Amino acid sequence: MFWSVTLLIFASAPSFLIAVDISTPENPLLISSLPLKGTPIPGCAAVFGEKVFVGTDRGVEVIDVGDPRSPRMRDFLPLDGVTGRLLTIGGYLYVPTSEGLFVVDLGADPPRLSMREGPRGYERMPIAQLGRKRDIVWALDRHRYIHLISTSNPAEPELMGSSAVPRDPVFFRLSEGDVEPLEKLNLSVELMILPRGRIACQGGACFLIKPEEVDLDEVIGVRRGTIDRLRIAAISRRYLVYWDHRSPDSLWILPRGGAFERLDLADGLIEFISSAGLGGVYPFKRRIVVFSERMWGADGPIFLGGGIDLLVHGDEEPRGRNGAKLFGVVDILIRGDEAYVITDSGELVVIDLPKRRITRVFVEPSLRFRSMEVKGETIYIAAVRRG
User: Fold this and answer.
1) In whole angstroms, what is the distance from residue 104 CA to residue 176 CA?
2) In this structure, is residue 235 part of a structural domain?
3) Which tens digit of pLDDT belongs to each residue from 19-54?
4) Using alpha carbons only, what angle is made at residue 257 by residues 206 and 201, rounded to the nearest 5 degrees?
5) In a domain? residue 138
């Protein structure tokens, strides 16, 4: 955990890009911060070479991080309505917006647009979400269609096909030119998040779907719901990670070839705080109360996780281990064997997926984290000022 006085230099700035050195995992260091022009959009950041790209409400901000300790604003792309995750493909940056797909040539200096309002074959597509599976880019538009986009020529992507999809399912199977809901997987998830469904999770393992019925190479997951009713999935070649607002204390992990397992986020945070030697840890109602002077910042209590308060003092007796609950999650990224979870209240929780446990929690009392990316031994986080 960390906090820094570096940010006092930019006391009037509303948002920042911060860099955290994780070369020593047990002692991460905040090494730099840089003011941003706009407000970061959740989950909207990318790294390419020595540049970080941050999507904000004003466009895409390009930061030179050749020296992570001294980042500088390099360029600004004034694109309206940036909506979702940025992708880097073959030296090009794909920017989804409400007006279509914009493609930026990163080989040019400064970066320049090679396509506006694409993809070719469906210009001005109102993109809500953008993702990549193997060599195919998929886009969910605001009209409930998932479009498959060829990037064989990354400078000018072309539409391959479109599929109308139901409003509710999160998981779909992607095949050549078509998308279809994964009914068993979606049903299994629905059963798991219900109280009675957890009966099938003895020892943390859920067997509501057979491992051989899920090929992660073919699965895509879309974000559903509004900010207070989100359902979010992240999928890599080795893991599927899922969070649902209806079971906010649970993170569901599906390893390749395995069965669903449930990580209790509240218990995981308690275990992490206890093992980190931060003092006495006691759950109380919807709070985790921590008695430790080390957790007191200059501006008052530090907040860890949505709805979980870290306090130096408590006026009532702690009770009930099950009282601690997370409020929400706004984004999940999988990088290697780690999942990076940004909470609704703006902290970053890092989870070791093979071990199913929380290993790091990043907190800056004055900021709410909104998006992030990892490059080597540095985490880049876009954040907004609290309050």
Assistant:
1) 26
2) yes
3) 998 888 777 888 999 999 999 999 999 999 999 999
4) 5
5) no
Cα separation, 380 vs 32, whole angstroms: 10
Exposure of 109 by Cβ count < 10 A (0-12 exposed, 13-18 middle, 19+ buried)? exposed
Does some domain include residue 266? yes
Cα 7 to chain centroid distance, Å, stands at 23
- Tens of pLDDT, residues 114-160: 999 889 999 899 999 999 998 899 999 988 899 999 999 999 999 99
What is the pTM for the complete model shown? 0.85
181: preceding bond cis by omega (within 30 degrees): no
How many folded domains does the chain comprise?
A: 1
Q: In what order do the strands lie in the sheet with 92-97?
A: 87-89, 92-97, 100-105, 112-118
In a domain, 57, yes or no: no
The closest of 381, 382, 384, 386 to 28, measured between CA atoms, is 381
Q: What domain range includes position 270?
A: 6-46+67-73+166-385
Tokens of 95: 């920017």
Quote the tokens at residue 21: 């050195």
Strand pairing class (219-221; 205-206): unpaired
3-state SS, the chain, equals: CCCCCHHHHHCCCCEEEEEEECCCCCCCEEEEEEECCCCEEEEEEEEECCEEEEEECCEEEEEECCCCCCCEEEEEECCCCECCCCEEECCEEEEEECCEEEEEECCCCCCEEEEEEECECCCCCCEEEEEEECCEEEEEECCCEEEEEECCCCCCCEEEEEEECCCCCCEEEEECCEEEECHHHHHHHHHHHCHHHHHHCHHHEECCCCHHHCCHHHEEECCECCCCCCEEEEECCCEEEEEECCCCCEEEEEECCCCEEEEEHHHHHHHHHHHCCCCEEEEECCEEEEECHHHEECCEEEECCCCCEECCCCCCCCECHHHCCCCCEEEEEEECCEEEEEECCCCEEEEECCCCEEEEEECCCCEEEEEEEEECCEEEEEEEECC
